[in-house]
What we know:
Elements: H1 5-31, H2 44-51, H3 58-63, E1 68-73, H4 88-97, E2 102-108, H5 114-117, H6 126-141, E3 148-152, H7 158-168, E4 174-177, H8 188-199, H9 205-215, H10 227-237, H11 253-268, H12 279-282, H13 285-298, H14 304-313, H15 321-330, H16 345-350, H17 353-363, E5 372-373, E6 376-377, E7 384-389, E8 392-397, E9 421-426, E10 429-434, E11 444-452, H18 455-463, E12 471-475, H19 480-483, H20 492-500, E13 505-509, E14 522-527, E15 544-548, E16 553-557, H21 584-589
Helix pairs in contact: 1-15, 4-11, 6-7, 7-14, 8-9, 8-20, 10-13
Amino acid sequence: MTLNDTVARITDRIIKRSEEHRQAYLKRMDDAKPQGPLRSNHGCSNQAHAYAGAGDDQEALFSAQAPNLGIVTAYNDMLSAHQPFEYYPELIRKAVREVGATAQVSGGVPAMCDGVTQGAEGMELSLFSRDVIALATAVSLSHNTYDAAVYLGVCDKIVPGLVIAAQAFGNIPAVFLPAGPMTSGLANDEKAKVRQQYAAGEVGRDVLLKAEMAAYHGPGTCTFYGTANTNQMLMEFMGLHLPGSSFVNPNTPLRDALTIEGAKQALSLSALGNNYTPVSQILDEKAFVNGIIGLNASGGSTNLLIHLIAMARAGGILLDWQDFAELSDVTPLIARVYPNGLADVNHFHAAGGLGYMIGELLKNGLLHPDTKTIAGEGLEHYTQEPKLIDDKVIWQAGTDKSLNDKILKPVEEPFQETGGLKRLSGNIGNAVMKVSAVDEKYRFIEAPARVFHTQEAVKAAFKAGELNQDTVVVVRYQGPKANGMPELHSLTPILSIMQGKGLQVALVTDGRMSGASGKVPAAIHVSPEALDGGMIGRIQDGDLVRVDAVNGNLEVLEVDLETRENATCDLSDSHVGVGRELFNTFRNAVGAAESGATIFGDMI
């Protein structure tokens, strides 16, 4: 199948735009190509320190003949998606010994749960945690004793942070090992209904807590299609997971077998063998375009509009929101997973999952087929699914037909003709919206503004009965420079109640709305942010605001914002407490959402 003209054109545009930075990056990686086992370059005392705790592996490490695998882990047992990683290191060590190699945990990185911090102070550290994870990973691998690395991470900021750092060590192979989703519990739509009932005062906290516990009930990723599961999708579309491994449940024989296979595969790609495939060769411009296509075709998380830009920049590749918008225009939405539908990721996986999606998109010329992956040359590998036969992982052809057309559809009969994301621009600035879950009748909203500087103020106004009319809720001073750009997902129940009353309602914010963005139209990531002089800081109560996801417009009508001054906001309460005072340097250094909201702007 011939590659879609728009996909080809945008890829060429990205390649040209990135050429200078990409070539400089690749030269650095080529100069750093290992010549023999990396640890052999160290002096004897250095090596002794590195192997002192290695027990029975000491002899193999001192021989400096076999490869040594670094394990970067985001394990903690508070985060359900990462709890299964507790036993991965020992599983990996045993597996690589069988092929004469060694493995060491090179370091741990922090992993916070956005579900725990939603609506709380800790959420203001969430986005910054991505760059902390990248820094911690760099420290972990800086001992320079590893010939390949595996990365244990799943959730929102963890995978992007690990990818950023993996590219700094792009001279060695990188394999990402997932933990899989928890088994299905209380249906996501039922959970959302109880949340709305609680927000409306119809049920008490005891009912809410019971519903939440029934939904989030065991080890593994939350089962809705938010940022964590979008990350897992990307790792397959971009070739860093083993094919079909993303949504295999934790603590199952197949999950363990895939972990073992992934560790061995990382070693097979090192410079000590005949199939040297460093991560710098896998994460090229085509891989990132494939990731953007996957994001749109699946209706994935809006957070990746920030993360993919930051991830790409770490490898010298320059993406912008216009690339996402134009690719969205030619990418059909072929998956419906909550909050874009009723199914969860387990149902999605059973219906054909990522293998079916990749096959459909390849067949219709919407993906680059010739990318390098950890599974070998070509994305076609990712149409296969793993089976555990006689205790060995075997990949077989996956289904080429949807097994449930309420969850997955062919490209010829999509849920909608364009992707799940939309870029908006106008006199307020640039923003993005996840439209895959927004009914078409709500994609054009024109209503008076109510302006707030905190989500708590929105909730107070709602409880006071002040939001009983058509409203564009503007929540500003929520950008990365202001307070770390928190997710405002805790506003979803309130906004949904307003919409359910028949009101025209939309959200406009320079904050984030998470991968769980739902049926209420939300123009998020507004750039420039209010603290950076953005026009969102000049909107006043009563201004008529148009949020138009059909034509891509975001504007205040009948007012010249240029004639106004930006409103001021006391942010001191957001800069202290729960560790926030330690992140002043991050707030001062962070770039705009459009450029990845990262502190690593000087990398390119």
